[in-house]
Specification:
- 35% of the residues lie in helices and 34% in strands.
- It is α+β, with helices and mostly antiparallel strands.
- It is globular and about 40 Å long.
- It has a 3-stranded antiparallel sheet with strand order 3-4-5. It has a 3-stranded antiparallel sheet with strand order 6-8-7.
């Protein structure tokens, strides 16, 4: 598996999304967020909803030295990628309707999921509640 950077995006050449997510979990990357200057960071592979998941940290507004952890499952990434490829975008409305368990864990899961897909070079933030296929 090879890692390289192109236009400030981390690109992995790999055979599967799952392999890519495993490699990304080792990187401790900051997740791009469109309207936040706080640091959200990929931590590791773990379990959420009885599935493999990317676990990431979110800021604790009361104590900067501690953080909360949330997760997005591999199958949720796969569903989002299918939507992105089929319709050219992922919207918050689609996310709330189609990834309800992920959405119910917290609103930041939408921008974290899409931010990770953005980091991997699949999409880009284009406006409030919308990420579109990255135009190459």
């Amino acid at each position: 598996m090879e890692l390289y950077v192109q236009n400030h995006k981390i690109i992995f050449q790999t055979e599967s999304l799952e392999e890519t997510l495993h490699k990304l979990a080792e990187s401790n990357c900051k997740i791009p967020k469109p309207k936040s200057d706080k640091e959200f960071r990929i931590l590791r592979i773990g379990r959420r909803r009885n599935q493999d998941a990317i676990i990431y940290s979110i800021p604790n507004n009361k104590d900067e030295n501690q953080h909360y952890e949330k997760g997005i499952t591999f199958s949720e990434f796969r569903k989002a990628l299918i939507e992105l490829q089929a319709n050219g975008c992922i919207t918050r409305d689609w996310f709330n309707k189609n990834l309800q368990e992920c959405a119910s864990e917290g609103t930041c899961n939408f921008t974290s999921l899409c931010g990770i897909l953005e980091l991997l070079g699949y999409c880009e933030y284009t406006g409030r509640g919308k990420y579109e296929v990255l135009k190459k």
